[in-house]
């Protein structure tokens, strides 16, 4: 073989080796870096989107935090309307409130009778406490008392029946009502 032929073989061999090194370097070193960069950019874009969502949630929570006093007041009202009770069911306190309320309206509230609690058919964590009351007084004083009892006083009650008779001190009203308690204890609202 001639020198020229050997030089050509070395030239083509060197050229092939150089091309092989460039292509191999591309696939083994450069392309993985581009892929890693693209992956990091995609992750960054996803993170930016997630950050925007979380910042929106945070803004919503900050708005709700501004209303925390309103929420506490609502919770406190609900706790008064539906107290937690296991042993006394808060009935003695409630009956004292009714007697005080009767005095405020100028009527006599007496003859208390309470039955065992019954679990509500619609809400298993709520129990109904059947109570009977005797109310004596003038009709124009009994009516506002009943309105206050049904809609204004804090304890949730539902008047089931009422029986009105004439009595010694004006009118006698015997009512059957349900007071409600819950078996789910909630933390008291901080003042």
TrEMBL record:
Residues 51-81 form a coiled coil. The keyword Transmembrane applies. InterPro entries: PilO, Transl_elong_EF1B/ribsomal_bS6. Keywords: Coiled coil, Membrane, Transmembrane, Transmembrane helix. The chain crosses the membrane at residues 9-29. It comes from the Bacteria. Signal peptide: none annotated. This is Type 4a pilus biogenesis protein PilO. It comes from Actinoplanes sandaracinus.
